[in-house]
What we know:
By secondary structure, the chain is mainly alpha-helical. Helix content is about 70%, strand content about 5%.
Amino acid sequence: xxxxxxxxxxxxxxxxxxxxxxxxxxxxxxxxxxxxxxxxxxxxxxxxxxxxxxxxxxxxxxxxxxxxxxxxxxxxxxxxxxxxxxxxxxxxxxxxxxxxxxxxxxxxxxxxxxxxxxxxxxxxxxxxxxxxxxxxxxxxxxxxxxxxxxxxxxxxxxxxxxxxxxxxxxxxxxxxxxxxxxxxxxxxxxxxxxxxxxxxxxxxxxxxxxxxxxxxxxxxxxxxxxxxxxxxxxxxxxxxxxxxxxxxxxxxxxxxxxxxxxxxxxxxxxxxxxxxxxxxxxxxxxxxxxxxxxxxxxxxxxxxxxxxxxxxxxxxxxxxxxxxxxx
Length: 327
């Protein structure tokens, strides 16, 4: 699941993989618990042994965990449901069943299971985090906000992700200053955190507060001088402000750190072309085309755009054609 803010509106994108937000393996714990049970075969028949095992939720739970790690989700869900038949209040099975149901797109059922797990163990931050994400995916924003507010107010659990999600909710609902306050509280605890810097910059930009976004990024770049990504973002913000010379200089700074930064080369090539500096444009473009990491389709697309500009092609491109696509 991903959250994005576009034009002040919150968008939720589903499609999380099993290895992301819905899944926390606990197979080792389950197996460790199972290993404590012993059934002397000399005194218990095989049939009775099976019946006893079948009545233990941890047996079905551990089977479900094993199947879930193999991405056999339908079978895993059957095992978790059997565990719940044996013990309706087995909250780990409720939690994992909710994970599987979310993978299958059965979000309402997943929320029901998750809510039961939270009710059984209200202090469990994993359970509450799962429920909050499900509420967001189901666009139940009031309930999600209330739960994130509860989690961020808990002094015993400090998770920057909860603050990030609450800030996104606040901003999407017109409470930008509250969103920034929540993000600043993370900085107070942890210092500059890359994910928090990114979302804060995004919120400021989306709110039209470009100057503040620039100032925030400048401070972060000053503290992390070898961070290519944020320095390039700073360059793009300068360009957005119309500060072309400063933007171009900042792109060059990125390339001084890493001459093979493809995004910086692409940006610099476009800047040269916009300024009519064709020779510098083609020289930079040649560096870009020589990078193996740039997909061939991207190189072809750029080549076609250039060759479609007949005036530019006639005046500048033919002498450089061979060198740009060689190697």
